[in-house]
Predict the structure.
Amino acid sequence: MSTLEADFIVVGAGTSGSLIARRVVERTDASVLLVESGPRYPRFPLDVPLAGLSLRRPWSWSHESVSQVQLQGRKVSFPMGRVVGGSSSVNAMICVPGMPQAFDQWREAGCDGWGGDEMMRVFGLAAAPGGRAPMGISEARHRAPFSEAFVEACVEYGLQQTPMLFGNTSNSCGWFPVFQRQGKRQSAGPQFLGDVRQLKRFRMLTRKDVRRVVLEKGRATGVEFFAGRKRVRAHATQGVILAAGALSSPTLLLRSGVGPADELRTAGVDVEVDLMGVGRNLQDHFGVPMVFQSTQPSPGRKSRWLLSALQYLWSRNGVMASTCGEVGCFLAVDQEIQESNIELFAMIQTNRAAQAIELMCILSEPQSSGTIRLNPDDPWGASLIDPNYLSHPQDWDFIMKGMNAARGIVHCPALQNFALTDEVLAKGRSDRELIAAEGTTFHHPVGGCCMGIDQQAVVDPCLRVQGVERLWVADNSIVPAISNAHPASLALMIGERASDLILAES
């Protein structure tokens, strides 16, 4: 077995991991080894926003859920990023830090330092112009006629238009800010790691799947992975930081012997720490596609890609600079709850019909939660991911109210030129049947290594794994309760906050 060594080992070069690695290198004299399961970021195919969204599959995990009881037994795919930059390299580039009040609830539950004011502060450090290493955020360069009309329709429906739709106000609509600069995707990997790669104290390994964290006498001392057929152990003198993502970090803890003891023994894994909360409280934004037939063809249809590509090369503008979902709104569809609980994501094109637009009706704060468990028959293979969608009755109620609101917006006068008529997917189906047959993930899973101070907490408010020294989790898996925040923005805030907390102990 060969051995590497660094002061800190960071597992996962996604948004949070890349940011943490940078902060450690720039603020200390420590050495950092960053280990990523995917390849380096390929600029040519992924920098172009619309093309990158269509070509992202080779740089994504092929995670899949177990059969979902409420979805006619269907399995749901989770194409999370498997590349330097993580999901920020393959996502829709939408920047939504969300409602500060949601973070206030984290603080009220005992997570001091994680309130709305603190989270908005660290978001500014990571993302706002003038920050310590800002991600590029801009207004949408391309503005499709349908997107303009949709925002007007939302205003007619009674919503407030905001200059940029950060999701921090209920019953608001507008244009999403995007992680772009001059029409190009801003992936967290190149953005945060570009000027630290040449430093001798920093090393990044790609295409290396970490199998487990090495624990010795209750302390994290490194990680193990394979390089070809050779097993490699990397030793960490100061600690290990897991930032592998909401689906992978819980799996790594379980494979390392940290989790519910009975489940670990069933899977044949030696128990290091009996920690009940690992793999619990998995939450996700669940969405239902609503596809409306239109007289207007999609501006981004592939028959126009050549002309659109030439326009993009000339001006970094046009439909190729679009995220496809340029506008949306956040709704409070229940009179007793003032915070937004539904998001409508308006897409200028869809693959579901030749001439149509698609609204994704999304549960912003679902009450249902699920699990991530090791497969007892193959603990080193794919985990058993069960988001347990729609297991809470309130989720059914809110998603159907959201669908009714979407129909109300679609039929406002501002959209009459698009002649939005039949719902392509709803023909012959009730809303419950449509939800069960077509509902799916909006690719925003969180939880599984939840932060807190109770017995179900996996990490404390300083992100230290309970019962293990010098081991932290610092990605979206630590989220104790889902909000309307989009995952790239959330991972930025967690990464910035984590770097402060971890370095304060070093």
About this structure: The chain has two domains: 1-66+77-136+183-282+371-381+446-506, 141-175+286-365+390-438. Residues 1-66+77-136+183-282+371-381+446-506 form a domain with the FAD/NAD(P)-binding domain fold (CATH 3.50.50.60).
